[in-house]
Design brief:
mainly alpha; 71% helix; 0% strand; 6 helices; elongated
């Protein structure tokens, strides 16, 4: 149970750290779903959902992140997939073309 208690405390810290920044919050959720999603019980998610340190947005997105098939979960899972293009090499190519 230690991992789960640590997870709840970690997510409270993450919520406070990412307050007002949805992209940052989703990155925290992405880490949890990618690595540890199967370890959390519905009770622990509910405990975090009821925590006053989370904003309403964070509470709802947390709940939806762990619901199979929800748009929020699909978005977060999409964040875990590698990019189809290498952005850095595209930028490098454009810079080199501009210098020429």
């Amino acid at each position: 149970m230690k991992i789960n208690e640590d997870w709840v405390n970690y997510m409270i810290m993450a919520a406070q750290h990412s307050r007002g920044n949805a992209a940052h919050w989703f990155r925290y959720l992405r880490k949890d779903i990618d690595k540890y999603g199967a370890l959390f019980t519905e009770k622990e998610i509910d405990e975090l959902f009821c925590n006053e340190n989370l904003t309403l947005f964070q509470r709802v997105s947390l709940k939806m992140a762990f619901e199979e098939g929800s748009p929020t979960r699909q978005h977060i899972i999409g964040l875990n997939k590698p990019a189809k293009t290498n952005i850095l090499s595209e930028i490098r190519d454009k810079l080199e073309a501009a210098k020429a």
